[in-house]
# Entry
Amino acid sequence: MLKKILFFLVCISWLLTESIYCQDFNQKKILADSLFAMGKYNEAETIYAQTLKEGVFLEQNVLKQAFIASQQKNYVAYLHYLNLLLQYKPKLSTAQKIYNIATAYELEGYEISDSKWILLLYYAYHRWIILGLCLLFLGWTIGFLRRKYTTWGAFQRNGIILLIGLAFSIFFINFIPNINEAVVAYNHTYLMRSPSAASEKVAVLSKGQKLNVIGEKDVWLEVIWKKEKAFVRKTQVYFHPLF
# Structure
């Protein structure tokens, strides 16, 4: 009886918390949108940035942040928000816009290869892809179990195919490289060999350079720079992971 009461109280607490959070979020969104409509871009950007930092990605908000950055002539922030939009919904027009800006400022790392484009498409639609794989595997499993085999060899062959499909699905879901990226926000940003200010310096970057992020350690991001692992402080870059 006590366990049921505790479970009920936990559920009620969770529902109340979610309700309060949703109300607070809606109020913030309404306020930010009204500030944006009045042309008070700095105040609106502060609220949009806070929402994004909390892990809530809304395409219309990020579009407005990109617009604000372009109005403020902040090409680094503009590149960052365009890059987020490209990851969320890959479009050739967005990719071309990013490439043109990067080329104008002589920045590296913004070219998109065929393999990178496939990764972008995968992460944009990965939920549907994974669901499709699960349904396909489920259908194959049901068919495998219901089929009547006349020989042991046929049973083995179908079992091996099933295991290969399962192994491929597990690999496909768990071992696809991530595409989280950070954009350097300031000139003279240091890349360090390890997550410590006292470690060896790997490189000094100018603002606008893009880094592939492979992990996080406290106030540091683990990144790849010229095929080499390094660390950069989170405060020195624009970074909002989507995946």
Q: What stands out?
A: Strands lie at 181-184, 189-192, 201-205, 210-217, 220-225, 228-233, 237-238. The two ends are 41 Å apart (CA to CA). Residues 181-238 form a domain with the SH3 type barrels. fold (CATH 2.30.30.40).
